Amino acid sequence: MSRPAPRFHNFIGHRTTVDFLRRQLAGALARHEPFPHVLFLGRSGIGKTLLARSLATEFGTKVVDAMGCLSRRDLAHKLGKLALGDFLLVDEAHQLDPLTQELLTEAIDEHSIPNLEPERKSKERVERRINIPPWTLALATDQPGKLLDALQRRIVIRVELRLYRITELKEIVEVLAANQNLLVSAQGARLLAEVSGGLPRCARFHLQNLRLFFPDSEQRQLGIPEIREFLAASGVDESGLGNLERTYLEELSRRGNASLESMSLVLGTDPAYLRRWTEASLVDKGLVDIASRGRSLTPKESRQNKLPNYLLMRGWIS
């Protein structure tokens, strides 16, 4: 019998990663040093931000939130508010413009930044630079290639989060359901985990929709029949494929090979959305290959046990 997935405050799973962060955290505390600057990598919805928050909570300091779309001046304001040992958590860090990334690099190297506040007309003396006590930069992104090399070289720890295993995701479903007072059977929780594509965010969305689909879900337990009814109504099949993903497979089967741009035109959505929210799931499931020649289905023998049976029986996917 396997032991339960580890808890890191509100973070569940990724045992090896959590164990490593615990050791690093204990060492920093023992040496009275801030936690090293850290970069969290992984698919959108995998839990990068939650892990960063859990780490700061375990460390016993505050998290100052920031988004990559913030202006240089706004980010400088947040840097100036940091206390000893605080974490500056920048979500969607790939959206930081080069000048703002250089400001972070300067803050790391110089322990200070220029005062970017507008000049005051009063006679008060305004400091030209703002000192920053020892602090921790935590960046979360699924597009690390957009970060400057100069900034990346100053990141001490890189945490790469993989897709969750079913057992880990089942525990997450059970915890989320309990937090919402939803009564879901163990089998129902596993089914929700299986169709969530390894992503906690997807599991959370399913539970939020399930709660509305069954208004009495706090009074009666939802099992396999109820979960299947809900999934069918929301267009999700037993493989976790949604309507757009199935249409993508059908169209690609008909064409044999296609570019991202042509697929987005046919499916009525933009290429960025299709690549990030549809193709990523299909590649993970081993159903689609992406190469320089375009998109194509994987060989039949490699996907025959991964596709929903009805797609094969109806001849939509050969």
Which properties best describe this structure?
single chain, Arc Repressor Mutant, subunit A, 318 residues, disordered C terminus, disordered N terminus, two-stranded antiparallel sheet, alpha/beta, Helicase, Ruva Protein, domain 3, Rossmann fold, 46% helix
Give a verbal description of the structure.
- This protein has helices at 15-30, 48-59, 72-80, 98-110, 149-152, 166-179, 186-194, 200-213, 224-233, 243-255, 260-267, 271-284, 300-303, 309-313, and strands at residues 7-8, 11-12, 38-41, 63-67, 87-91, 112-114, 129-131, 136-141, 157-160, 288-291, 294-297.
- By secondary structure, the chain is of the alpha/beta class.
- It folds into 3 domains: 7-114 and 129-160, Rossmann fold; 166-233, Helicase, Ruva Protein, domain 3 (Orthogonal Bundle); 243-313, Winged helix-like DNA-binding domain superfamily/Winged helix DNA-binding domain (Arc Repressor Mutant, subunit A).
- The strands form 4 sheets. Strands 4-5-8-3-9 form a 5-stranded parallel β-sheet, sandwiched between helices. A two-stranded antiparallel ribbon has the order 1-2.
- Strand 1 (7-8) and strand 2 (11-12) form a beta hairpin.
- Helix 6 packs across helix 8.
- The longest helix is centred in the N-terminal third of the chain and has 16 residues, at 15-30.
- The model is unreliable at 1-6 and 313-318 (pLDDT under 50).
